Amino acid sequence: MSETENEATVKRRQNRYRLVVMNDDTYEEVITFKLSRLSVYVALSSIFILLVGLTVALLVLTPLKFYIPGYGNNTSRAELQVLKMRTDSLQQAIIYKDQYLDGLKKILNGGNAVQLDTTTLKVPKAERVND
């Protein structure tokens, strides 16, 4: 873009326009607005930001946030943590039970379920006390 096109764009945004609201029966001017493209853009952007801000504030600062899927509340979060801990402990108990049953099946089928420790231990002999 050249300098003249940039200047033309800026000037076009700053051109003044008149918005007139008239009574249809009497052709009397009810209200008149002097606007530019830039002022309309700023006004619409401000309204958009204000509406988004109010919506976010409404959802964050009021109990409406509990209607958002997946948000929940503090008590449900605490209950969820307790349930997770119970699930983990139950899962560990099931693993131990399965290991026990697998060992029991191996023993009943005649296999060696447990790897025996074959290292020798040197146990000192107890000393007798003579009376």
TrEMBL record:
Task: Spell out where the chain crosses the membrane.
Answer: 38-61
Q: Does the keyword Membrane apply?
A: yes
Q: Respond yes or no to whether keyword Transmembrane helix is given for this record.
A: yes
Q: Which top-rank group of organisms is this from?
A: Bacteria
Recite the UniProt keywords alphabetically. Answer: Membrane, Transmembrane, Transmembrane helix
What's the protein here called? Peptidase
From what organism does this protein derive? Panacibacter ginsenosidivorans
